[in-house]
Design brief:
By secondary structure, this protein is α/β, with parallel strands linked by helices. It has two domains: 3-278, Rossmann fold (3-Layer(aba) Sandwich); 287-538, Rossmann fold (3-Layer(aba) Sandwich), CATH 3.40.50.880. The N and C termini lie far apart (59 Å). Bound molecules: glutamine (GLN).
Length: 540
């Protein structure tokens, strides 16, 4: 039977619970165990799909088509395990489910309450879809003390009672601040946070202390004493220079060792930290640098393009280069400024996006990259904008646009009429926005002897999608006559998946999101190739 590890956070948010959980997953996996990681989010949205990236950062998409929290991206990148729909749950989803059952009369006349009905549903989720896993790591979003996370904490308390205390481990990640004025490390916030947790009935077994500086033994002893955990289970995590160092650092602090000790089991294999050491070395030491511009609407918030930033870094790792990302806000980008803004840029990337705002800036930048032979990668919306640019300037459809921006006679991009998923016919709609896009992994068939087929070294690829609109296939011939090849199509030949330019060193647009599948230990070929092209361009 699986063992469960619950990770809660204290004092402040953004302490790196996701990264800690992901690193622990890697370490346990490397020791020979089968691991699964899940996230329990306390907000009321059913999923983050309809939230603005400014609110919640990127929306991460799984193979099976769930729109999830970006932490699931960390999990995948560190553990290599593909996340599933069942790995992210929100308060909204739980309540939605319980209320639907209530309307169906499934509670047999009982009063429906947070305890036991909501907490029971949370517990069912925690256990759901677990088969041969040795460990299930569940990260609880939010901070202990928040009203929203209370039902989750109550549920994991009950859960631990039910399956047995020896099968559940509670890890509490907290902040141990350094006070410059008195040159002291302060343990009081941690003591308070653990006190709060214990008042709910949860005694942490391991406390991970996030700190700017090494925590002296005396302070660790204090935490151990006041928080009722063994001194060896007070684990510090001092800020790392690159996230790839995290598994190394947690192993050094013996986190994985303490977890195994708690469950009274032995390591099956020796931990392999070599890949992380190599990457850390490279990322920190390489002097080679290539500049990539991301032109988008949400560039102010770093987390909005989390997987993309990561995938670009991975592309750099594959080429032994550091990737410097230059973020350009598309909304205020004027045509007249483009030459100047892109003068030190070796490659241009237009990411996914929604809505008309900022599109003219993007289209002008694509035009510049196309005309000046700068490597260009358009992702989802980025590909759609590249198609609009080409239609306007090469096909002479001056008012070419997308029906996403309103109805028009020149929609080279239109609402997807239909597609098949698991043998079922699906239809596009923009009436209800939550979970109605073409989501998750779909196959694309690649045309022989194209740039893309050489990059993938395959004629069949599976990539993750998240879109409502598509390039109108009826224009295919017109585009191809002018040099834009539709080099990847859905298996039924109805949906354009990839476009590329014949007479350009590297100009590719993809209707899917390759960034979701790139991993530091296995960089995505599209990003490796894009960075390689940018490096070649930088040497010109
Ligand atoms: N807004 C576009 C669509 O729905 C692109 C979406 C995206 O970039 N993920 O098709």
């Amino acid at each position: 039977m699986a063992r469960y590890i619950f990770v809660t956070g204290g004092v402040v948010s953004s302490l790196g619970k996701g990264l800690s959980s992901a690193s622990l997953a890697y370490l346990l996996q490397s020791r020979g165990y089968k691991v699964r990681i899940r996230k329990l989010d306390p907000y009321l949205n059913i999923d983050p799909g309809t939230m603005s990236p400014f609110q919640h950062g990127e929306v991460y998409v799984t193979d099976d088509g769930a729109e999830t929290d970006l932490d699931l991206g960390h999990y995948e990148r560190f553990s290599g395990i593909s996340a599933k729909k069942t790995d992210n749950i929100t308060t909204g989803k739980i309540y939605n489910d319980v209320l639907k059952r209530e309307r169906q009369g499934k509670y047999l006349g009982k009063t429906v309450q947070v305890i036991p009905h909501i907490t029971n549903r949370i517990k069912e989720f925690i256990k759901n879809d677990v088969a041969k896993e040795d460990f299930v790591i569940c990260e609880i979003g939010g901070t202990v003390g928040d009203i929203e996370s209370l039902p989750f904490l109550e549920a994991i308390r009950q859960f631990s009672n039910e399956i047995g205390r020896i099968k559940t481990l509670f890890i509490h990640l907290t902040l141990v601040p350094y006070m410059k004025a008195s040159d002291e490390i302060k343990t009081k916030p941690t003591q308070h946070s653990v006190k709060e947790l214990r008042s709910i009935g949860i005694q942490p077994d391991i406390i991970i202390c996030r700190s700017e500086r090494t925590i002296p033994l005396d302070q660790r002893k204090k935490i151990s004493l006041f928080c009722n955990v063994g001194i060896e289970d007070v684990i510090e995590t001092v800020d790392v220079k690159t996230i790839y160092e995290a598994p190394i650092s947690f192993n050094k602090q013996k986190l994985d060792e303490r977890v195994l000790k708690f469950f009274k089991i032995k390591s099956k294999k020796k931990v392999n930290l070599l890949p992380w050491k190599k990457i850390t070395q490279l990322v920190l030491n390489t002097k080679n640098k290539v500049n990539i511009a991301i032109i988008g609407k949400y560039v102010e918030l770093k987390d909005a393009y989390k997987s993309l930033d990561e995938a670009l870094t991975h592309g750099g790792i594959a080429n032994n280069f550091k990737v410097k990302i230059i973020r350009i806000e598309s909304d205020v980008l004027k045509k007249s400024e483009i030459k100047d803004k892109l003068k030190d840029v070796d490659g241009v990337l237009i990411p996914g996006g929604f809505g008309k705002r900022g599109t003219e800036g993007k289209i002008a930048a694509i035009n510049y990259a196309r005309m000046n032979k700068i490597p260009f990668l358009g992702i989802c919306f980025g590909m759609q904008m590249a198609v609009i640019e080409f239609a306007r300037n090469k096909l002479n459809i001056k008012n070419a646009t997308s029906s996403e921006f309103g109805s028009s006679k020149a929609s080279v991009i239109g609402l997807i009429s239909e597609w098949t998923k698991d043998g079922k016919l699906m239809k596009g709609t923009d009436k209800e926005l939550g979970g109605t896009m073409r989501l998750g992994s779909y196959e694309a068939r690649l045309k022989k002897d194209t740039k893309i087929s050489k990059i993938y070294k395959s004629l069949r690829v599976f990539e993750r999608h998240r879109h409502r609109y598509e390039v109108n296939i009826n224009y295919k011939k017109d585009f191809e006559n002018k040099g834009m090849i539709f080099s990847g199509l859905s298996p039924d030949n109805k949906l354009p998946e990839i476009i590329e330019l014949k007479d350009h060193p590297w100009f590719i647009g993809v209707q899917f999101h390759p960034e979701f599948k790139s991993r530091p230990l296995a960089p995505h070929p599209l990003f490796s190739s894009f960075i390689k092209a940018a490096i070649i361009n930088s040497k010109k």
